[in-house]
Amino acid sequence: MAKAVAVLAAALLLVAAMGSGGASAQDCDSSRLADCAPAFLFGVTPSQSCCDKLRLEEQRGCLCVYARDPQYSGFLNSTKARDALAYCKVAYPSC
């Protein structure tokens, strides 16, 4: 139970840190990646929902937006995030 609470708290912190105010013309909203917080923060296997959302963000071109933004890049450039992208078969953005 405590682990679940910690994961939920970390997910909420990630969403708060990434915010939704950085939306671009492509309508990028980092809060859509909240399902990926456990994978990005703790290295757990990404959920199917996380993988689906990563694929959608990739199609929208949003991963490049996040990779270029100092507010988001630390999360996306982490080893755990790269592992999650690889697991989901989503290419790391080469922007």
Automatic annotation (TrEMBL):
Protein biosynthesis keyword on record: no
Q: Which GO terms describe its molecular function?
A: lipid binding
Keywords noted in UniProt: Lipid-binding, Signal, Transport
- Output the GO biological process annotations, alphabetical, semicolon-separated: lipid transport
- Positions the record marks as coiled coil are none
Q: Where is the signal peptide?
A: 1-25
Domain Bifunctional inhibitor/plant lipid transfer protein/seed storage helical span(s) in chain numbering: 31-95
Pfam family name, one: Tryp_alpha_amyl
Cross-referenced InterPro entries, in alphabetical order? Answer: Bifun_inhib/LTP/seed_sf, Bifunc_inhib/LTP/seed_store, nsLTP2
Q: Does the keyword Transmembrane apply?
A: no
Similarity-based family:
Belongs to the plant LTP family. B11E subfamily.
**Protein name, per record:** Bifunctional inhibitor/plant lipid transfer protein/seed storage helical domain-containing protein
Lineage of the source organism?
Eukaryota, Viridiplantae, Streptophyta, Embryophyta, Tracheophyta
